[in-house]
Amino acid sequence: MRSFRNILLAAVAAFCCLGATAQELNCTFEVDSKKVKNANKDIFNTLQEAVNEYLNTTVWTDAQFAVNEKIQCKMFLSVAEYDESNGRMKGDLQIQSTRPVYNSSYTTTLINFKDTKIEFNYDNNEQLVYNEQEMQSNLTAILNFYALFVIALDFDSFAPNGGDPYYEKLENIVRMAQSSGESGWKAFEDSKNRSAILSAYTDKQTNAIREIFYNYHRQGLDQMVTSVDKGRATITQQLEKLKGIYDVAPMSVCLSMFKDAKMDELVNIYSKANSSEKEKVYELLYPLYPTETDRLNKIKNTENK
Protein backbone atom coordinates (compact mmCIF):
# COMPACT_ATOMS: atom_id res chain seq x y z
CA MET A 1 0.00 0.00 0.00
CA ARG A 2 2.59 2.45 -1.23
CA SER A 3 0.31 5.49 -1.32
CA PHE A 4 -0.12 5.31 2.47
CA ARG A 5 3.62 5.53 2.94
CA ASN A 6 3.81 8.35 0.44
CA ILE A 7 1.35 10.39 2.49
CA LEU A 8 3.42 9.93 5.62
CA LEU A 9 6.58 11.12 3.91
CA ALA A 10 4.95 13.81 1.78
CA ALA A 11 6.00 16.55 4.18
CA VAL A 12 9.61 15.71 3.45
CA ALA A 13 9.17 15.45 -0.30
CA ALA A 14 6.70 18.27 -0.92
CA PHE A 15 9.24 20.92 -1.83
CA CYS A 16 11.79 18.64 -3.44
CA CYS A 17 12.36 18.61 -7.17
CA LEU A 18 13.38 14.97 -7.15
CA GLY A 19 11.54 12.71 -9.54
CA ALA A 20 9.94 9.42 -8.67
CA THR A 21 11.80 6.21 -9.30
CA ALA A 22 10.85 2.57 -9.26
CA GLN A 23 13.96 1.52 -7.32
CA GLU A 24 13.32 1.02 -3.62
CA LEU A 25 16.59 0.55 -1.76
CA ASN A 26 19.48 2.71 -0.71
CA CYS A 27 21.59 -0.19 0.49
CA THR A 28 25.28 -0.30 1.38
CA PHE A 29 26.92 -3.71 1.01
CA GLU A 30 30.37 -4.25 2.52
CA VAL A 31 32.66 -7.27 2.46
CA ASP A 32 35.15 -8.04 5.24
CA SER A 33 37.74 -10.62 4.16
CA LYS A 34 40.27 -10.19 6.98
CA LYS A 35 39.79 -13.81 8.09
CA VAL A 36 40.80 -15.11 4.66
CA LYS A 37 44.55 -15.56 4.27
CA ASN A 38 46.68 -16.03 1.16
CA ALA A 39 43.95 -15.21 -1.33
CA ASN A 40 43.68 -12.63 -4.09
CA LYS A 41 41.62 -9.92 -2.44
CA ASP A 42 40.44 -8.50 -5.77
CA ILE A 43 37.62 -11.05 -5.77
CA PHE A 44 36.12 -9.46 -2.65
CA ASN A 45 36.28 -5.97 -4.13
CA THR A 46 34.50 -7.07 -7.30
CA LEU A 47 31.93 -8.97 -5.22
CA GLN A 48 31.23 -5.87 -3.16
CA GLU A 49 30.81 -3.72 -6.26
CA ALA A 50 28.61 -6.28 -8.01
CA VAL A 51 26.29 -6.73 -5.02
CA ASN A 52 25.96 -2.99 -4.44
CA GLU A 53 24.94 -2.53 -8.05
CA TYR A 54 22.55 -5.48 -7.87
CA LEU A 55 20.77 -4.34 -4.71
CA ASN A 56 20.49 -0.71 -5.76
CA THR A 57 19.49 -1.11 -9.40
CA THR A 58 17.13 -4.09 -9.27
CA VAL A 59 13.46 -3.07 -9.28
CA TRP A 60 11.94 -5.14 -6.48
CA THR A 61 8.32 -3.92 -6.48
CA ASP A 62 5.75 -2.03 -8.53
CA ALA A 63 5.74 0.84 -6.02
CA GLN A 64 7.02 4.31 -6.81
CA PHE A 65 9.69 5.78 -4.52
CA ALA A 66 11.12 9.26 -4.65
CA VAL A 67 14.88 9.30 -4.19
CA ASN A 68 14.59 10.63 -0.64
CA GLU A 69 12.00 7.94 0.22
CA LYS A 70 14.27 5.00 -0.51
CA ILE A 71 14.56 2.44 2.27
CA GLN A 72 17.86 2.77 4.10
CA CYS A 73 19.66 -0.51 4.73
CA LYS A 74 23.09 -2.02 5.20
CA MET A 75 24.45 -5.51 4.66
CA PHE A 76 27.84 -6.55 5.99
CA LEU A 77 29.35 -9.82 4.76
CA SER A 78 32.12 -11.31 6.87
CA VAL A 79 33.90 -14.02 4.87
CA ALA A 80 35.36 -16.77 7.05
CA GLU A 81 36.41 -19.22 4.30
CA TYR A 82 37.19 -18.91 0.60
CA ASP A 83 38.12 -21.70 -1.84
CA GLU A 84 39.79 -20.19 -4.89
CA SER A 85 39.39 -23.42 -6.86
CA ASN A 86 35.62 -23.07 -7.11
CA GLY A 87 34.89 -19.59 -5.77
CA ARG A 88 33.10 -20.96 -2.70
CA MET A 89 32.67 -18.50 0.16
CA LYS A 90 31.36 -19.11 3.65
CA GLY A 91 30.62 -16.60 6.39
CA ASP A 92 27.88 -14.55 7.95
CA LEU A 93 25.77 -11.62 6.84
CA GLN A 94 24.57 -8.78 9.08
CA ILE A 95 21.41 -7.08 7.81
CA GLN A 96 20.24 -3.73 9.14
CA SER A 97 17.44 -1.43 8.02
CA THR A 98 15.85 1.72 9.37
CA ARG A 99 12.85 3.93 8.69
CA PRO A 100 12.11 7.55 9.63
CA VAL A 101 9.75 8.37 12.47
CA TYR A 102 7.02 10.63 11.16
CA ASN A 103 7.49 14.37 11.66
CA SER A 104 10.85 14.02 13.40
CA SER A 105 14.55 13.67 12.63
CA TYR A 106 14.67 10.31 14.43
CA THR A 107 15.18 7.03 12.58
CA THR A 108 14.22 3.70 14.10
CA THR A 109 15.81 0.32 13.47
CA LEU A 110 13.56 -2.24 11.80
CA ILE A 111 16.05 -5.07 11.31
CA ASN A 112 19.33 -5.88 13.01
CA PHE A 113 19.92 -9.54 12.20
CA LYS A 114 22.91 -11.80 11.55
CA ASP A 115 22.53 -14.77 9.21
CA THR A 116 25.27 -17.27 10.07
CA LYS A 117 24.44 -19.73 7.27
CA ILE A 118 25.92 -17.88 4.31
CA GLU A 119 27.51 -20.05 1.61
CA PHE A 120 27.73 -19.36 -2.12
CA ASN A 121 29.93 -19.57 -5.18
CA TYR A 122 31.11 -16.44 -6.93
CA ASP A 123 33.40 -16.07 -9.94
CA ASN A 124 35.44 -12.91 -10.39
CA ASN A 125 33.46 -10.33 -12.40
CA GLU A 126 30.41 -12.57 -12.45
CA GLN A 127 27.29 -10.68 -13.47
CA LEU A 128 24.43 -10.96 -10.98
CA VAL A 129 21.09 -11.37 -12.72
CA TYR A 130 17.67 -10.96 -11.11
CA ASN A 131 15.06 -13.53 -12.07
CA GLU A 132 11.83 -13.78 -10.12
CA GLN A 133 10.88 -17.12 -11.65
CA GLU A 134 14.13 -19.06 -11.40
CA MET A 135 16.94 -19.37 -8.88
CA GLN A 136 20.01 -18.02 -10.63
CA SER A 137 22.48 -18.72 -7.80
CA ASN A 138 22.51 -19.08 -4.05
CA LEU A 139 24.09 -15.64 -3.76
CA THR A 140 21.27 -13.91 -5.64
CA ALA A 141 18.69 -15.98 -3.76
CA ILE A 142 20.11 -14.75 -0.43
CA LEU A 143 20.22 -11.16 -1.67
CA ASN A 144 16.68 -11.41 -3.06
CA PHE A 145 15.40 -12.79 0.21
CA TYR A 146 16.83 -10.06 2.41
CA ALA A 147 16.08 -7.22 0.00
CA LEU A 148 12.42 -8.23 -0.11
CA PHE A 149 12.29 -8.92 3.62
CA VAL A 150 13.59 -5.40 4.27
CA ILE A 151 10.89 -4.04 1.96
CA ALA A 152 8.15 -6.21 3.52
CA LEU A 153 8.91 -5.03 7.05
CA ASP A 154 9.15 -1.42 5.96
CA PHE A 155 5.69 -1.60 4.39
CA ASP A 156 4.33 -3.47 7.43
CA SER A 157 5.51 -0.60 9.63
CA PHE A 158 3.45 1.93 7.67
CA ALA A 159 0.22 0.04 6.94
CA PRO A 160 -1.60 -3.01 8.33
CA ASN A 161 -0.41 -6.02 6.32
CA GLY A 162 1.35 -3.62 3.97
CA GLY A 163 4.04 -6.18 3.22
CA ASP A 164 1.67 -8.89 1.94
CA PRO A 165 2.83 -8.86 -1.71
CA TYR A 166 6.45 -9.21 -0.65
CA TYR A 167 5.87 -12.14 1.69
CA GLU A 168 4.39 -13.92 -1.33
CA LYS A 169 7.62 -13.25 -3.20
CA LEU A 170 9.62 -14.48 -0.20
CA GLU A 171 7.66 -17.72 -0.18
CA ASN A 172 8.57 -18.26 -3.82
CA ILE A 173 12.27 -17.60 -3.13
CA VAL A 174 12.34 -20.04 -0.21
CA ARG A 175 10.44 -22.69 -2.18
CA MET A 176 12.91 -22.54 -5.07
CA ALA A 177 15.96 -22.44 -2.80
CA GLN A 178 14.85 -25.39 -0.68
CA SER A 179 15.26 -27.69 -3.67
CA SER A 180 18.81 -26.46 -4.28
CA GLY A 181 20.33 -28.30 -1.32
CA GLU A 182 22.06 -25.14 -0.15
CA SER A 183 22.40 -24.37 3.56
CA GLY A 184 20.08 -21.91 5.29
CA TRP A 185 16.84 -22.67 3.47
CA LYS A 186 15.51 -25.94 4.80
CA ALA A 187 12.52 -26.06 7.13
CA PHE A 188 13.46 -27.14 10.66
CA GLU A 189 17.17 -27.16 9.76
CA ASP A 190 17.78 -24.20 12.05
CA SER A 191 15.53 -22.06 14.24
CA LYS A 192 17.01 -18.86 12.80
CA ASN A 193 17.56 -19.62 9.14
CA ARG A 194 15.75 -17.99 6.23
CA SER A 195 12.95 -20.56 6.21
CA ALA A 196 12.40 -19.95 9.93
CA ILE A 197 12.25 -16.18 9.37
CA LEU A 198 9.59 -16.56 6.70
CA SER A 199 7.57 -18.91 8.92
CA ALA A 200 7.77 -16.55 11.88
CA TYR A 201 6.19 -13.72 9.90
CA THR A 202 3.59 -15.79 8.04
CA ASP A 203 2.49 -18.71 10.26
CA LYS A 204 -0.73 -18.21 12.20
CA GLN A 205 0.91 -18.85 15.57
CA THR A 206 3.36 -15.99 15.21
CA ASN A 207 2.32 -13.67 12.38
CA ALA A 208 0.82 -11.27 14.93
CA ILE A 209 4.37 -9.90 14.97
CA ARG A 210 3.38 -7.96 11.83
CA GLU A 211 0.41 -6.30 13.57
CA ILE A 212 2.69 -5.55 16.51
CA PHE A 213 5.20 -4.06 14.10
CA TYR A 214 2.59 -1.76 12.54
CA ASN A 215 1.12 -0.59 15.85
CA TYR A 216 4.55 -0.14 17.46
CA HIS A 217 5.71 2.14 14.64
CA ARG A 218 2.66 3.85 13.15
CA GLN A 219 0.46 4.10 16.24
CA GLY A 220 3.30 4.26 18.74
CA LEU A 221 6.52 5.94 17.60
CA ASP A 222 4.89 8.07 14.92
CA GLN A 223 2.42 9.44 17.49
CA MET A 224 4.99 10.28 20.14
CA VAL A 225 5.81 13.59 18.47
CA THR A 226 2.33 14.87 19.35
CA SER A 227 1.69 12.79 22.50
CA VAL A 228 4.56 10.97 24.17
CA ASP A 229 2.32 9.31 26.76
CA LYS A 230 -0.24 8.09 24.21
CA GLY A 231 2.43 6.73 21.88
CA ARG A 232 4.27 5.00 24.70
CA ALA A 233 1.02 3.45 25.99
CA THR A 234 0.43 1.94 22.55
CA ILE A 235 3.95 0.49 22.55
CA THR A 236 3.30 -1.06 25.96
CA GLN A 237 0.21 -2.74 24.53
CA GLN A 238 2.35 -4.20 21.75
CA LEU A 239 4.76 -5.65 24.29
CA GLU A 240 1.80 -7.43 25.88
CA LYS A 241 0.98 -8.94 22.48
CA LEU A 242 4.63 -9.91 22.07
CA LYS A 243 4.31 -11.86 25.31
CA GLY A 244 1.38 -13.67 23.65
CA ILE A 245 3.69 -14.87 20.86
CA TYR A 246 6.21 -16.05 23.43
CA ASP A 247 3.52 -18.06 25.21
CA VAL A 248 2.83 -20.15 22.08
CA ALA A 249 6.22 -20.08 20.33
CA PRO A 250 9.00 -19.15 22.77
CA MET A 251 11.77 -20.07 20.31
CA SER A 252 10.42 -18.06 17.38
CA VAL A 253 13.11 -16.08 15.62
CA CYS A 254 10.78 -13.07 15.42
CA LEU A 255 11.19 -12.61 19.20
CA SER A 256 14.98 -12.39 19.05
CA MET A 257 14.76 -10.18 15.96
CA PHE A 258 12.47 -7.79 17.82
CA LYS A 259 14.90 -7.70 20.74
CA ASP A 260 17.95 -7.04 18.57
CA ALA A 261 16.19 -4.20 16.74
CA LYS A 262 14.33 -2.62 19.64
CA MET A 263 15.85 -3.24 23.07
CA ASP A 264 18.04 -0.13 23.20
CA GLU A 265 15.17 1.93 21.82
CA LEU A 266 12.84 0.64 24.53
CA VAL A 267 15.30 1.79 27.19
CA ASN A 268 15.01 5.31 25.75
CA ILE A 269 11.25 5.17 25.28
CA TYR A 270 10.62 4.31 28.93
CA SER A 271 13.28 6.60 30.41
CA LYS A 272 10.59 9.18 31.24
CA ALA A 273 7.76 6.78 32.05
CA ASN A 274 6.38 6.58 35.58
CA SER A 275 7.66 3.85 37.86
CA SER A 276 4.57 1.64 37.56
CA GLU A 277 4.79 1.65 33.75
CA LYS A 278 8.49 0.81 33.91
CA GLU A 279 7.78 -2.05 36.31
CA LYS A 280 5.06 -3.37 34.01
CA VAL A 281 7.35 -3.35 30.97
CA TYR A 282 10.11 -5.04 32.93
CA GLU A 283 7.73 -7.79 34.05
CA LEU A 284 6.54 -8.25 30.46
CA LEU A 285 9.99 -8.47 28.90
CA TYR A 286 12.03 -10.36 31.50
CA PRO A 287 10.44 -13.78 30.79
CA LEU A 288 11.10 -13.27 27.07
CA TYR A 289 14.68 -12.04 27.41
CA PRO A 290 16.17 -13.25 30.70
CA THR A 291 19.74 -12.79 29.42
CA GLU A 292 19.11 -9.08 28.85
CA THR A 293 19.27 -8.21 32.55
CA ASP A 294 21.46 -5.13 32.14
CA ARG A 295 19.25 -3.43 29.58
CA LEU A 296 16.04 -4.49 31.28
CA ASN A 297 17.31 -3.07 34.55
CA LYS A 298 17.91 0.22 32.73
CA ILE A 299 14.22 0.26 31.81
CA LYS A 300 13.21 -0.53 35.37
CA ASN A 301 15.60 1.73 37.21
CA THR A 302 16.14 4.79 35.00
CA GLU A 303 15.13 7.93 36.86
CA ASN A 304 12.83 10.47 35.23
CA LYS A 305 14.58 13.67 34.19
Label this structure with key terms:
305 residues; alpha+beta; four-stranded mixed β-sheet; two-stranded antiparallel ribbon; 10 helices
Helix-strand layout with pairing:
Layout: H1 2-13, E1 20-21, E2 25-32, H2 42-57, E3 65-66, E4 71-83, E5 88-100, E6 107-121, H3 138-158, H4 164-178, H5 194-202, H6 208-220, H7 228-248, H8 253-269, H9 275-285, H10 293-301
Parallel strand pairs: 2-4
Antiparallel strand pairs: 1-3, 4-5, 5-6
Helix pairs in contact: 3-4, 3-6, 4-5, 6-7, 7-9, 8-10, 9-10
Quick overview:
The radius of gyration is 20 Å and the shape is globular.
Task: Please give the number of β-strands.
Answer: 6
Lateral arrangement of strands in the main beta sheet: 2-4-5-6
Tell me the major beta sheet.
4 strands, mixed
The radius of gyration over CA amounts to 20 Å
The dominant shape is: globular
- How many separate helices? 10
- The fraction of residues assigned to DSSP E strands is 15-25%
- Distance N terminus to C terminus? 40 Å
Secondary-structure content class: alpha+beta
Estimate percent helicity.
Answer: 40-55%
Extract low-pLDDT stretches: 8-19
Mean pLDDT: 92
* Pattern of helices and strands: HEEHEEEEHHHHHHHH
How would you sum up this structure, described in words?
- There is one protein chain.
- 37% of the residues are buried.
- The protein has 10 helices and 6 strands, in the order H-E-E-H-E-E-E-E-H-H-H-H-H-H-H-H.
- The strands form 2 sheets. Strands 2-4-5-6 form a 4-stranded mixed sheet. The protein has a two-stranded antiparallel sheet with strand order 1-3.
- It is an alpha+beta fold and 305 residues long.
- The chain has helices at residues 2-13, 42-57, 138-158, 164-178, 194-202, 208-220, 228-248, 253-269, 275-285, 293-301; strands at 20-21, 25-32, 65-66, 71-83, 88-100, 107-121.
